[in-house]
Amino acid sequence: MMTKSGASNRDVKKINRIRTMRSIFDCDRISQPELAAKVGNSWPTVLQNVKELMEMGLVQEVGTFESTGGRKAKAFAPVRNARYAVGLEITQNHIGAVLADLSGELVRFERKKRPFERSDTYAAMLAELVQSLLAKEDCPPEKVLGVGISLPGILDRDEQTLVYSHALGLRNVPVEEFSRHIPFPCRFINDANAAGLAEFRGQQSPRSVVYLSLSNSVGGSIFTGGSLYGGEHLRAGEFGHMTLVPDGRPCYCGKRGCLDAYCSAKVLSDRTDGNLALFFDGLRAGNPDLQAAWNEYLSYLAVAVNNLRMIFDCDVIVGGYVGGFLSEFGAPLRELLAQHNTFEPDSGYLKCSRYKLESSALGAALVHIEAFIQSL
Ligand SMILES: [Zn+2]
């Protein structure tokens, strides 16, 4: 039988099971009546789903809640360690690695300096990193859903081929080149999409959010109706190559005037020997040259952020290396945004990212967790 919306009974059952799972995973424990209210189904329907989730080992019964009238209500809790996923973030000079549990919480994060090279040694090192991460948390291999690999580049639709990465100097590389020693399912994800996914997870679905990443390159991602908007060629959110200044500064992409040439973290860190933290130390110390550079940087950033707000009319989360410093140094940006905005007197829509260096690796792990939940 089909419902009015076109969804079959099986679809409805699946949606309800996933909603039950998410409702339990949102809390440490939840009582039977609270759960039924939250899912919005009758208790017998919810109970059937809870039973199935318990059989899968994803949910457990944890005693009872005292309720009014002396009746005891059953309580349920998530089994967060029922599954895990690993996320790797590969950049030009570093590797980040995250272990996340089934609720998407970060269990462990490690980051080390290791320049990227296209070699079997590098691929073997990635596998060792995954194994050592699992060993440190006593995580058995049968609980591992997969490994997400975040990269700065454009991917093919199947997320199994890296089409182009300027930062890594790669074209048309299959995921096997990275995953050949890793004994789990692996898939690629664009770094800004991954970081945006990690940030988006903290928002109430199905809100729309735009994520702008200000790292050594500028990127971003767009979440609408609860999911990532990829565009026709999976290049949506490449905000770094929006033209900000006609015939402006040269961009690494070969064009001129791209946002990247004005707002990448390198624009700032180039002034302090490549060390971004030193740039902000200088700001704290009142260095007038660095202050002037920061003001100029923010004047361009404000144009970009205002444009994103005008296009998407939703929260704009600013992350990446520079985003990590905005809660401390972002006040002038908020003033500029208020000045630019045609419709709003303030910049309340601008949000600083929740995660810092771990965001892309965490997002890469979340891809596997989300796929598992959708398969329930
Ligand atoms: Zn460009």
Number of domains: 3
The residue ranges in which pLDDT falls below 50 over 5 or more consecutive positions are none
Largest β sheet strand count, sense and barrel closure: 5 strands, mixed
**How large is the radius of gyration?**
23 Å
Strand content: 15-25%
Overall pLDDT, averaged? 92
Question: How many DSSP helices?
Answer: 14
Describe this structure in words.
This protein is an alpha/beta fold and 376 residues long. The chain folds into 3 domains: 9-78, Orthogonal Bundle (Arc Repressor Mutant, subunit A); 82-196 and 359-374, 2-Layer Sandwich (Nucleotidyltransferase, domain 5); 204-352, Nucleotidyltransferase, domain 5. The chain has helices spanning 9-25, 32-39, 43-55, 120-136, 176-179, 191-201, 260-263, 265-269, 276-284, 288-312, 320-323, 326-329, 331-340, 359-374; strands at 30-31, 59-66, 72-78, 84-90, 94-101, 106-113, 144-151, 154-155, 161-165, 170-174, 186-190, 209-214, 218-224, 227-228, 315-319, 350-352. The strands form 4 sheets. Strands 6-5-4-7-11 form a 5-stranded mixed beta sheet. A hairpin with a 4-residue loop joins strand 9 and strand 10. The mean pLDDT is 92. It binds zinc ion. Zinc ion binds next to loops.
